[in-house]
Write a structure and sequence with these properties.
The complex is a heterodimer of chains A (321) and B (349). With 321 residues, chain A is an alpha/beta fold. Helix content of chain A is 19%, strand content 34%. In chain A, strands 1, 2, 3, 4, 5, 6 and 7 form a seven-stranded antiparallel sheet that branches. Chain A is globular and about 60 Å long. In chain A, 42% of the residues are buried. With 349 residues, chain B is of the alpha+beta class. Helix content of chain B is 30%, strand content 21%. Chain B contains 14 helices and ten strands. In chain B, strands 1-8-9-10-6-7-2 form a seven-stranded antiparallel sheet. In chain B, a hairpin with a 6-residue loop joins strand 9 (262-273) and strand 10. In chain B, helix 12 (298-310) packs antiparallel against helix 14 (325-333). Chain B starts with a helix and ends in a 16-residue tail after the last helix. The chains are: A alpha/beta (321), B alpha+beta (349). The interface between A and B is medium-sized, with 29 and 29 residues.
Chain lengths: 321, 349
């Protein structure tokens, strides 16, 4: 059972420097047609050809879901990363043709909510921009609390305030402003759903505070895209393909498998969706699970691995692929 | 040809004048690719298939279209709860309306036309004599909710599943041609809850695998599968609500009338990810063929005989025909000479 959604051939029509770290990109369809509608919180996977290295990074769609003329994403430059964001910042210019995936949503709104409480940190604001546009058109009740390091890096703060007024609450770290989370959470009406997107520390803080205050698990939603971590190079045997592949230090297992010409399933490439789950036939060593998909028991059992973010250290790893 | 020549005037109750034309029989979606049947998730991409087949387009419109829509209106008039949509599912209803209108207008331009000017839409359905102008995403501009509006014009049942907490929740639907299940009973249930009555499959892990697969269903990549059962008389509405009306009919089957009255009921099930709501639309399209019609295709007669002979008792019980199975096998045996059948389900040329 393969899920074979077609890619969308697109043209970059705008590249906008939002601040010293963030650029915004607009894509329209190469054939001039409409882009598919999407739900707030969805992302697209952008395919890059970085001097022969194929990079696939997921970015949240931030344009209005009702706007079928194109998609917009924002990319934060990550100097220490593996190169995808640097490529987007340095090489991508208006007029370039790129392949993007159909939208996929792993961070959907729960439309049953009486109220939507949105908590964003830094670049984690992007999915909320689309969600707020959608909530606004649905006439739903929402409130955004958005924290950034300083005014310069608080991308879209002014625009969002202009659009959504006092439903937007802004916090700047350097000005010693912080969300008073316990008070904020205590003051919410029953039936509120909470959504958080930002750095790992923020997500953990928000979710654990809410849990401690008795919020039901089903009312808590978070999205953290993991960039595949760098690590030591290692070798992996692919049983069905009958080959051995070397995974480089700055390469993910999935990327190494793809570079060897073996087709492997994927969707989010960030350890969240489960699509790339692969059976491990033999494991002599330590599996470095980095995903949010497998349960702790599954991770301990070492029978499955998520090649998009997870790595291996040891003597021998054999995958079913 | 006029629309009246294409779309038959026939009934699915009372005098049961429903029949398949010879061409209708040839394109019937016979669901058994092999001489034995067992459960499987058996999903495949819902891509356009053989010309003239029920797979040619995303939504098949056939000679029974107008009569089926009349039957739906009749059932709804008696029992409005066959159509329900929880408040948060309205957006998914609009998604479904868009999907069906776009598909029908693209695939059957002679019958359906859709003009879109931003959110101002103009819809023409010639076979049903409907023409409406409305504002997309504004419920007040339609005579009823968007899901009800479009599914009164589309063959087959539809349910809408919300996706949250790594599960699917059946929270809207139009269900008037169902194989003995109730939307009113199931609404609000999650994937495992509404499948709980199905025997064997749960233990086989079928539902865990199917759910995992569906949670990752992608926009633009719909899938389909078959299901099947048996129905006495060509009755679309075999609902639990009306079991007292149709259930006893199973006891009146005889050697003399089985060919005419016993029908193989096939569901072509399709699953679409919806864009704005991220919900999943589940289409359950019912096709009925009498044994008499079915045995005009020798391959199908041989194969159905063998499938019924080897089917586990649990399945025949669950599908509700254990009582009449011996009679069915006896009837079909006269058309099975033991010759091998060709692979796949298409009829032999």
């Amino acid at each position: 059972m393969s899920v074979g959604a077609s890619k969308i051939p697109a043209i970059v029509t705008e590249v906008v420097e939002v601040n010293s770290l963030i650029k915004r990109f607009r894509f329209v369809r190469e054939d001039g047609g409409q882009t598919p509608g999407f739900s707030g919180g969805a992302h697209t996977v952008v395919e890059m050809d970085d001097n022969g290295t194929r990079r696939l990074n997921a970015y949240s769609l931030m344009s209005d879901p009702a706007d079928l003329s194109g998609y917009e994403i924002s990319v934060r430059r990550d100097e220490g990363g593996r190169g995808g964001s640097l490529y987007m910042h340095r090489a991508v210019r208006p007029g370039m043709k790129m392949l993007i995936s159909q939208p996929v949503n792993l961070f959907g709104l729960d439309l049953r909510a009486r109220k939507h409480l949105l908590l964003a940190g830094g670049i984690g604001i992007t999915p909320f921009i689309a969600q707020m546009a959608q909530l606004d058109s649905l006439g739903a009740r929402f409130e955004l609390h958005y924290a950034a390091r300083d005014r310069e890096l608080g991308a879209y703060m002014t625009e969002l305030t202009a659009r959504h007024g006092d439903r937007v609450h802004r916090y700047y770290d350097v000005e010693n402003q912080a969300i008073d989370l316990p008070a904020l959470l205590r003051g919410q009406p029953l039936g509120t759903h909470l959504y958080v997107c930002g750095p790992k520390g923020m997500i953990n803080w928000v979710l654990s505070t809410a849990t401690d205050l008795g919020w039901p698990k089903g009312a808590l939603h978070s999205e953290e895209f993991l960039a595949p971590p760098v690590g030591q190079p290692f070798q992996v045997e692919l049983a069905r393909s009958n080959m051995t592949v070397t995974v480089g230090a700055a390469q993910s297992l999935l990327e190494a498998i793809e570079a060897a010409g073996v087709e492997a399933p994927y969707l989010c490439r960030g350890g969240a969706c489960g699509q790339c789950e692969t059976r491990v036939l033999h494991c002599e060593g330590e599996m470095l699970h980095h995903d949010h998909w497998l349960s702790d028991e599954q991770k301990a059992a070492c029978a499955h691995i998520m090649p998009c973010v997870s790595r291996f250290k040891g003597k021998r790893l054999v995958l079913e692929l | 040809m006029s629309l009246d020549d294409i779309f038959k005037d026939e009934t699915f109750f009372g005098d049961y004048t429903y029949r398949n034309s010879p061409q209708g029989i040839r394109r019937f979606p016979f669901p058994f690719p092999e001489d034995e049947y067992m459960y499987s998730v058996n999903m495949e991409p819902h891509v356009p298939g053989r010309k003239g087949s029920v797979f040619e387009f995303a939504f098949d419109v056939d000679e029974h279209y107008v009569a089926e829509m009349k039957d739906r209106a009749r059932v709804l008039a008696q029992d409005p709860l066959r159509c329900q949509s929880l408040p948060h599912m309205t957006l998914a209803g609009w998604d479904l309306l868009e999907l069906i209108m776009e598909s029908l207008a693209r695939d059957y331009p002679q019958w359906f036309t859709l003009h879109r000017d931003g959110n101002r839409w103009h819809w023409i359905n010639r076979p049903l004599g409907i023409e409406d102008r409305f504002t997309f995403l504004d419920e007040t501009t339609l005579p009823c909710g968007p899901m009800e509006y479009i599914t009164r014009q589309a063959q087959g049942d539809f349910t809408l599943q919300d996706q949250r907490n790594d599960n699917l929740w059946i929270e809207a639907g139009m269900v008037t041609s169902q194989a003995d299940w109730s939307l009113d009973f199931d609404i609000g249930m999650n994937f495992h809850e509404w499948h709980a009555p199905v025997p064997l499959a749960g233990k086989m892990g079928v539902f865990d695998r199917a759910l995992k697969f569906l949670l990752q269903l992608q926009l633009g990549a719909p899938v389909r599968r078959f299901n099947w059962t048996m129905t006495v008389d060509p009755l679309l509405d075999t609902s639990p609500e009306n079991y007292h009306k149709w259930g006893p009919g199973k006891t009146t089957l005889t050697r003399e009338n089985i060919g005419r009255r016993q029908h193989l009921r096939v569901e072509l099930q399709t699953l679409f990810r919806l864009p704005r709501s991220n919900a999943i639309a589940f289409g359950i399209r019912c096709y009925l063929i009498s044994f008499e019609e079915l045995v005009t295709q020798p391959k199908w007669a041989r194969r159905l005989h063998r499938v019924l002979k080897t089917l586990p008792d649990e399945l025949a019980t669950y599908k509700g025909f254990i009582r009449n199975r011996p009679l069915m096998i006896e009837y079909l045996a006269q058309f099975d000479d033991g010759a091998p059948t060709s692979p796949g389900w298409w009829p032999d040329d």
